[in-house]
Structure formats: structure tokens, C-alpha cells
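Hi F.,

I've been meaning to write this up properly since the lab meeting, where we talked about keeping a consistent format for the predictions we share between groups. The idea is simple: the sequence comes first, exactly as it goes in, then the C-alpha cells exactly as they come out, then a line or two of notes. No screenshots and no reformatting. I'm using this chain as the first example so we have something concrete to point to.
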Amino acid sequence: MDNATLSALVHQLVPIVAILITFGCPVAIVWTVKHFKLKDRELELEAQLHSRELELRLRTLEARQGAVETALTAIGARPVVLPPVEQRMSLLEPSSTSTESAEVQPADPQRVRNR
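Output, unedited:
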């Protein structure tokens, strides 16, 4: 393009651009304000929803903690009675003889591990 054509094109585009800016700026400003008000409202609703979920979760955790504390205090309140030492020692001893235990055990130890 030569300079004369470019100059004529610029002179014709100036009024068009001026009109677009004059009428486009208020539209852009109104759209921006409305858009961000909508986004702000969405964030407020989301925060309310999350606060309700958080409150419900907190209540659930407090109920669980209360149940655990109740169980622990109940365990601590009654004495634990252990069987006599002789009875506990008899539980540690094997109940069968060595020949009986050989018959009970499978022949292939690898097979037992694979189960």
C-alpha cells in the first residue's frame, strides 16, 4: 500500500473507532460490574455451602470423639480381671504331641504361603 491509500483508510477509520469506543465503553463497564457482582454472589453461596458441610463434619467428629471418650472411661472405670498365671501359661503350651502336629501340618509349606 502506498501512503495516500493508507492515509485515506486511516481518515475513514477514525470516526468508526471513535463511535465504537464512545458506545462500547459504557457497555463494557456495565457488563464488567454485572459479571463481578454475579461472581461475588456465587462465591458467597459456595462459602455458605462449605460452611454447612464443615459444620456437619465437625459435629460428626465431635460425636465420634465423645463415643471414644465414653468407651475409654468405661474401660478405665471397671477393673480388668486377668486369669491366674497357671491358666495363662497353659495357653502357651502346645496342646498336641509332636507326632500329631506332624500329621496336621501339610507336606508342602509353599502351598500354605500361597493361600
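Notes:
The chain has a mean pLDDT of 82.
The CA atoms of residues 20 and 62 lie 61 Å apart.

If this format works for you, I'll send the rest the same way.

G.
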